[in-house]
Amino acid sequence: MSKSLLRISGALLAIVALRAQSPDLPDWQKAAGGKMAFDVASVKPTNRPEPPSFPLDSGNAKTSGGRFSASFSLSLYIKFAYKLDAFRSSATNAMLPKWATTDMYEIHATAEGNPTKDQMRLMLQSLLADRFKLKVHFDTQEKPVFALTLVKPGQTGPKLIPHDQGPPCPDSFTLPALGGLPSDSDKEVFPPMCGYAYGFGNLNGKWRLGTRNSTPEYLAASISDYGLFAGEVDKPVVDRTGLSGRFDFTLEYATDPARLFSFFGPGPPKVDAPGDSQGPSFQEALRKQLGLKLVPDKGPVETPVVDHVERPSEN
């Protein structure tokens, strides 16, 4: 073989090796810094659910320093670790064995410093790979989606405002207590924390949803999850608003009370939206209160594919 061919062959081998070491990861994962791990971690089966030390959603709420603790199923840990919306989580769950969606595991872990929420996700990915032998790869396909757009170009609704026009974020994070839907006269800042989609309702089917200091992308993710819960969104929601910066919003709407406690395991979306006897439907509220609408479209949807998983190893 000539020297020129040897150089070309060597260059091709180098490219192949580089691609093998640098898989096509999501942008948020690259920005968070690549592979990370907790300093100390324990995993054990449990029958007792435990609230997480910080919200395990796709927002940017503050973490509890370097401490991670929760008691959930493996499927919910995967949802957090890979920053999945409800639709991609449901698709991933279909690849898992039944125990991974029903059995609960208590995880307590610590890391030095004050890692961001996305860095905590990377640490949990390493923990799941180590203890559950979880292996995944990403598959991107063109699929039906809802494009989140403005009803009127350049104009938002009365309950969607730039964050700098609202109250400042608190210095510390505390999960709010569950309760009934506050009245319009309630002067309490809603939600009390920033970077977290908080929604709750009552047995009459009235719901209130809100976020503070959130990007348009996270707004779309929140609408995707809670719209599915309301039975009015049956495809992933992607941001096509053209908005930039960070925003606060609140959304009040009516939904079927039977769906009240089914957020982590929603059934198929209903064909008909709920009536307006208790208030507007989810999509009606979206238009009137936030100045946003959902338009059927197509777009790339990236979903983790589960290649392997096992019951966790002993501590």
Which key features would you list for this structure?
single chain, 315 residues, alpha+beta, 2 domains, 4-stranded antiparallel sheet, 3-stranded antiparallel sheet, 8 helices, 10 strands, 26% strand, disordered N terminus
Structure description:
This protein is of the alpha+beta class and about 325 residues long. It folds into 2 domains: about 25-140 and about 305-310, no CATH class; about 140-170 and about 185-300, no CATH class. The protein is built from 8 helices and 10 strands. It has helices at about 5-20, 25-30, 75-80, 85-95, 100, 115-130, 215-230, 280-290; strands spanning about 40-45, 65-75, 105-110, 135-150, 160, 200, 205-215, 235-240, 245-255, 290-310. The protein has a 4-stranded antiparallel sheet. Strands 1-3-2 form a 3-stranded antiparallel sheet. Strands 8-4-10 form a 3-stranded mixed sheet. The protein is globular and about 55 Å long. Mean pLDDT is about 80; it is low at about 1-25, about 175-185 and about 265-275.
